[in-house]
Give the backbone structure.
Amino acid sequence: MTAMTQTMTGNYTGNYTGNEAAGGLIGPQPAAVLDLRGHLAQHGQLPSLGPHDVVRLARDAGLTGHGGAGFPLWRKLEAVINSGGRAVVVANGAEGEPASAKDRWLLTHRPHLVLDGLQLVARAVRAGDAYLYASERHRGLDHLIAERRAAGIDAVRVERAAAPDRFISGEESAAINSIAGGLAIPSSKPPRVVERGLRGRPTLVSNVETLALLALVARRGPAWFRSAGTADFPGSMLFTVGGAVRHPGVVEAPHGTPLTEVLELAGGPTSRLQAVLLGGYHGSWLTAEEAASAAMSRSDLAAYGASPGAGVVVALAEGVCGLAELSRVMTYLAQESAGQCGPCLNGLPRIAEQVRSLAFDGTDAAVFTELQRLSGLVVGRGACHHPDGSVRFLRTGLRVFADEVAMHLDRRCTRTSDDRVLPVRMVR
Ligand SMILES: Cc1cc2nc3c(=O)[nH]c(=O)nc-3n(C[C@H](O)[C@H](O)[C@H](O)COP(=O)(O)O)c2cc1C
Ligand code: SF4
């Protein structure tokens, strides 16, 4: 396996580690780009399934969403069906999170599994329109979509819609606004998109990994899916493992796999770790001691106030300043907000300023107190979860880097490395 490099623009290149026991998204030929012929040779045709069959399969398999929240797919399908009217389905491949590369990997290497899954959910909700919402770098998929259409594989016409490379572009109402020709920013008001989404129609937005897994479940059955993972969260998931590991990249492992094993799939730590970030920039930090005993399931991680989210795992080596990492990412998150609600407009920029002061200026304890106060003010007050997620990232970081905070307040720092570990995109 060749090493994968992580750059500050969040680009990941290289090969990927498959775990055959885990699932089957990565499979025996990790680096292969499966074209239609390769896809059919490896997975075979999709079985002919009616709408109820698809919902039943998703329910029996216990398939949950892989876009971050882990919501059961079958419940979303039923909500769209029960909303009545002509439905729309959207495969969400926006992957606005710079530390995540698993959706990009899927769309590059296993696009037909995603497109199969999109057809299955379209069938389940009797959708007339289907969209693949992904970055412009995936425009080559137009060719695959046309090829499938010409081969008579896709009953429902699929249109690709360009997702801007911004952190919030993948939030489901932002995706819908963007596909409708507006800005890719979240809607500030209900109703839920399953009731009134794209052009007022009931809309199912599912992450591309969720759809790819559905395509495997349709072929191999719910019992196969449940043979890995936990009772609550069966099956496997993709993890984007970055930071201080030998082979940063995308790996696959069952829900509930010990975090240490996930790090080993990426070659293992390159040095002693001080902390691990789970779930990305809306996720949570764990100390190295916590990471040593944590398992990657929602129920296990809940004990640490954490969640696997969309599978981002970043290992932070000793010697890297955790506060500098917090500062860069909080500045990025503040700039990435849509700036349409109070907490994002006023709260996040002020929080980012205080963290910068804590990380880089000689400062006093009042800054730390002010940070706690401001964080409390923004939680639960945005139209979407951007402020809440950003504050979770910060608060768990301040807990895990408490010793570093104390040193900074004493105008010292343990930093021995100038590495910038967490990727952020260039600010426009
Ligand atoms: C700020 C923000 C950004 C998000 N970005 C993405 C994204 O890039 N891709 C994605 O699939 N879901 C993203 N989500 C979650 C979506 O809103 C939605 O829950 C998800 O696409 C549903 O798919 P799932 O049920 O398969 O997980 C984001 C949510 C928030 C609050
Ligand atoms: S909370 Fe922030 S990101 Fe979410 S809709 Fe409001 S301004 Fe936009």
Q: What stands out?
A: Residues 45-226 form a domain with the Rossmann fold fold (CATH 3.40.50.11540). Residues 65-69, 71, 92, 94-96, 168, 170-172, 205-207, 210, 384-386 surround flavin mononucleotide (ligand 1) (CB under 6 Å). The first strand starts at residue 5 and ends at 6. The mean pLDDT is 90.
